[in-house]
């Protein structure tokens, strides 16, 4: 059996056994899980160890008694008071609005025409004396109480026909009009020429609302003689009132008051129409005021659901006292006011659920738990006795027996889970299946997750289920592996939580919370983004905890909340506590995981986004060495990094990895920096004194030197792979051609090949092309203008050369990706060699 297969098998067994051992650590007497209160004991039970056991039934009974001892705390509901007051006011308004029926429209009386002539001031003229004989016309305008339909008998005895002041009257005779109005006693008088006199009572001048002038007397024609007082017929004003039975029918359709109450109030409202016309005080306003005063009095004393029937009964036997100023009491109106209050009054003292719950919780907190001590060897229950909950709890707490059946089943579940994960990796993720160290790392993470589940199980009783740091495992797995492996870890955490806690809610939370950070860390490219991902992941875990705790862990004792008067069973206490624990633990655990990443990266030689960020930092000690010893190479590497980063992004490869490879691909040149043309500042080329083969040996050595320095600076192998493959096994063309010229073509090409292997990944292939392209451009554009056409030629020449030489034969790049890479190279180089304006009289311009 091959060694990798043995390693995989060993990793499988180690993971299963370790996770099983962690979940079984400290396990209790699972074999007694099926015991139920009231069950007959089939054996004698003795305490195998000394323990103090909580008597849950006795403690619960004391808690229930303490909570029940708290009377409900009442509060005044001002909204109820306001609503009832508005309803009563609306009742009075509706009655007053219904009793006055609309006035029938009357035809506007047409006044007789007037002439332009008028009676002269003196009765004589220069030619002939004209004598105008005058007459006095009188009349009466009165309030016709006797003729008003719908007015109550009591009102007819109270009000009599009475003169009405301020009504306009127009008296017309022989083209002369005299306007006047009724006086205080309703009488009026006007002097006009004798003859046919027309008396018109104006229907819109001084007539009160809801009143109208009788049609028979609205306009009268009289024959009046000179020197004789001419008396017009009295004009009666009558109000238009709605019959009481009609008022009762309309009001009772919407109001909860009886017919008699409406009748009394309708009579008062009808009387008020006459009173208002006469300028007397309103009875309806007095009744309304006494009704509201009694309502305020009852609300002030407090109306509860319990005393509401008694208050309504008292309103019937002891109604409000209605007294009209100058007229005396009105017991009938008082009884009606009491009936209105009784019909509308509602409890304004309601139970303050929140305050009551707080007080009951405080009383509950004062209750001391009932604990019963059991000594080792003490009998808990004998054979044939009926078990109580205390007996069962004591048996489980003091037993040292662990069920072998349960443990064997747990082992089977874990073996199946790890086996399924391994099957997935072997079929779909060969890049990880082929690396035993990555399988071992995944196994370690699974074991750590089992430990976290076990810890949450231990802490649940005193803290919360949501101390499970599931987010940290999703976070770490997504960084060390990738998003798809992190999804597998979410599945593993869910299975571990279900098997280790046997709680469905925490299993769901474990799986979902492990998935939460994957979208946030899969594409981060800075340390700040990692910190932001931690916060967002913790917030997502808090939301997941809210949902799972509400559905799975909210008990019946949780206090509901009232929103807009609607009681919603939202256990804010449980949800808030769960969210707080989930958020806090997720933040802390993710930060700890973030710190642990460096250990895993180093121990398992893994290149993560975080390590790549460190490597691409210009302050890295290896880059500092490159800058100090080989400044030209350093600048070349930065440009190669820019080209590689753009090309990798164009095809969706790991751009950060490509940049890091580019930065370190020539690290070995720091050992002999002056042997490379880009570092030869003001000195003669040393290769002029060496044979081509010697020069090739020196150039070749920068790869091996670079690998050695990468180990020294602990550069990950994924990045160091760029050192080995950036030249592939290509020929050093310059020294090869030089040797051929010196030896008439008799040269072994292998003596001039680079040490390394061809690129096997998209990133290494891109770095190879970027390195060659940067060098070619630097050489070409020292002697020619870097136009877009010239740059394109160089790019095509370099790519074709690598393809023709077979250096890309082992890379996964496709033709479409090569097209995208070529375009990215052109964009980067054109931007690098951009044109600048030559300033006048500037040196070198």
Overall spatial form: elongated
Considering DSSP H and I runs of 4 or more, what fraction of the residues is helical? 40-55%
* Tally of individual domains: 5
- Approximately what portion of the residues adopt beta-strand conformation? 5-15%
Beginning-to-end CA distance, first to last residue: 74 Å
Q: Can you give the mean pLDDT?
A: 84
Poorly predicted runs: 116-127, 149-157
- In DSSP terms (H or I, runs of 4 or more residues), the helix count works out at 30
* Count of strand segments: 20
From the helix content, strand content and strand pairing, which structural class follows? Answer: alpha+beta
* Rg: 53 Å
Largest sheet report? 6 strands, mixed
Describe it for me?
The protein is an alpha+beta fold and 845 residues long. Helices cover 54% and strands 10% of the residues. It has five domains: 30-55 and 370-398; 78-101 and 242-350, no CATH class; 134-239, Immunoglobulins (Immunoglobulin-like, Sandwich); 426-604, Orthogonal Bundle (Arp2/3 complex 21 kDa subunit ARPC3), CATH 1.10.1760; 619-832. It has 30 helices and 20 strands. The strands form seven sheets. Strands 4, 5, 8, 10, 12 and 13 form a six-stranded mixed sheet that branches. Strand 19 (561-563) and strand 20 (566-568) form a beta hairpin.
């Amino acid at each position: 059996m091959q060694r990798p297969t043995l390693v995989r098998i060993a990793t499988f067994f180690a993971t299963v056994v370790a996770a099983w051992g962690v979940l079984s650590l400290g396990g209790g007497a699972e074999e007694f899980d099926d015991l139920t209160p009231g069950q007959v004991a089939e054996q004698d039970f003795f305490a195998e160890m000394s323990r103090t056991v909580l008597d849950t039934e006795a403690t619960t009974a004391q808690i229930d008694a303490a909570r029940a001892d708290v009377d409900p705390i009442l509060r005044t509901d001002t909204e109820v008071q306001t609503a009832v007051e508005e309803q009563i006011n609306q009742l009075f308004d509706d009655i007053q609005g219904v009793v006055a029926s609309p006035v029938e429209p009357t035809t506007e009386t047409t006044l007789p025409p007037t002439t332009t002539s008028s009676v002269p001031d003196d009765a004589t003229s220069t030619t002939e004396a004209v004598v105008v004989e005058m007459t006095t016309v009188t009349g009466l305008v009165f309030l016709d109480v006797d003729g008003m339909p719908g007015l109550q008998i009591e009102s007819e005895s109270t009000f009599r026909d009475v003169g009405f002041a301020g009504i306009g009257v127009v008296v017309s005779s022989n083209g002369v009009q005299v306007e006047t109005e009724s006086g205080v006693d309703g009488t009026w008088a006007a002097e006009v020429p004798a003859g046919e006199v027309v008396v018109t009572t104006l229907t819109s001048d001084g007539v009160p609302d809801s009143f109208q002038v009788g049609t028979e007397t609205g306009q009268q024609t009289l024959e009046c003689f000179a020197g004789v007082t001419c008396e017009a017929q009295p004009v009666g004003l009558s109000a238009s009132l709605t019959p009481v039975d009609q008022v009762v029918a309309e009001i009772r359709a919407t109001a909860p008051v009886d017919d008699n109450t409406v009748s009394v109030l309708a009579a008062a409202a009808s009387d008020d129409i006459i009173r208002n016309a006469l300028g007397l005080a309103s009875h309806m306003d007095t009744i309304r005021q006494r009704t509201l005063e009694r309502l305020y009095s009852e609300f002030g004393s407090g109306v509860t659901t319990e005393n509401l029937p008694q208050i309504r009964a008292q309103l019937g036997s002891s109604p409000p006292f209605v007294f009209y100023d100058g007229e005396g009491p009105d017991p009938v109106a008082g009884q009606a006011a009491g009936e209105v209050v009784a019909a509308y009054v509602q409890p304004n003292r309601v139970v303050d659920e929140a305050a009551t719950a707080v007080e009951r919780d405080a009383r509950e907190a004062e209750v001391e738990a009932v604990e019963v001590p059991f000594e080792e060897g003490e009998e808990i229950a004998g054979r044939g006795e009926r078990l109580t909950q205390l007996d069962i709890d004591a048996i489980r707490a003091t037993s040292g027996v662990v069920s072998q059946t349960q443990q064997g089943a747990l082992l089977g579940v874990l073996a199946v889970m790890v086996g399924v994960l391994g099957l997935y990796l072997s079929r779909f993720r060969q890049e990880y299946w082929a690396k035993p160290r990555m399988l071992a790392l995944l196994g370690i993470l699974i074991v750590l997750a089992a430990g976290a589940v076990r810890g949450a199980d231990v802490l649940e009783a005193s803290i919360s289920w949501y101390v499970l740091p599931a987010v940290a495992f999703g976070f770490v797995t997504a960084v060390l592996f990738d998003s798809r492996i992190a999804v597998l870890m979410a599945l593993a955490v869910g299975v571990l939580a279900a098997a280790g806690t046997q709680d469905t809610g925490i299993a769901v939370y474990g799986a979902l919370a492990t998935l939460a950070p994957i979208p946030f860390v899969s594409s981060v490219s800075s340390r700040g983004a990692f910190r932001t991902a931690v916060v967002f992941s913790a917030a997502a875990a808090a939301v997941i905890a809210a949902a799972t705790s509400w559905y799975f862990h909210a008990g019946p004792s949780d206090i509901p909340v009232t929103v807009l008067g609607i009681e919603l069973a939202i256990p804010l206490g449980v949800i808030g506590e769960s969210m707080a624990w989930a958020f806090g633990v997720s933040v802390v655990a993710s930060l700890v995981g973030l710190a642990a990443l460096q250990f895993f990266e180093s121990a398992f030689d893994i290149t993560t986004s975080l390590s790549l960020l460190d490597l691409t930092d210009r302050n890295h000690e290896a880059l500092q060495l490159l800058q100090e010893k080989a400044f030209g190479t350093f600048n070349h590497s930065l440009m190669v990094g820019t080209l590689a980063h753009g090309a990798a992004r164009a095809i969706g490869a790991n751009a950060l990895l490509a940049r890091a490879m580019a930065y370190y691909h020539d690290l070995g040149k720091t050992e002999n920096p002056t042997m490379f043309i880009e570092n030869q500042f003001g000195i003669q080329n040393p290769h002029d004194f060496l044979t081509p083969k010697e020069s090739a040996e020196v150039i070749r050595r920068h790869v091996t030197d670079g690998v050695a320095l990468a180990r020294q600076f602990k550069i990950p192998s994924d990045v160091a792979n760029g050192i080995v493959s950036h030249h592939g096994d290509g020929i050093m063309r310059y020294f090869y051609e030089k040797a051929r010229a010196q030896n008439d073509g008799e040269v072994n090409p292998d003596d001039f090949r680079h040490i390394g292997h061809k690129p096997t990944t998209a990133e290494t292939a891109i770095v190879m092309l970027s390195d060659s392209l940067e060098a070619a451009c630097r050489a070409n554009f020292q002697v020619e203008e870097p136009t877009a056409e010239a740059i394109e030629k160089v790019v095509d020449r370099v790519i074709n050369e690598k393809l023709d030489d077979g250096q890309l034969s082992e890379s996964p790049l496709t033709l479409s990706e090569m097209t995208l890479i070529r375009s990215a190279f052109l964009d980067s180089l054109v931007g690098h060699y951009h044109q600048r304006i030559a300033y006048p009289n500037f040196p070198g311009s």
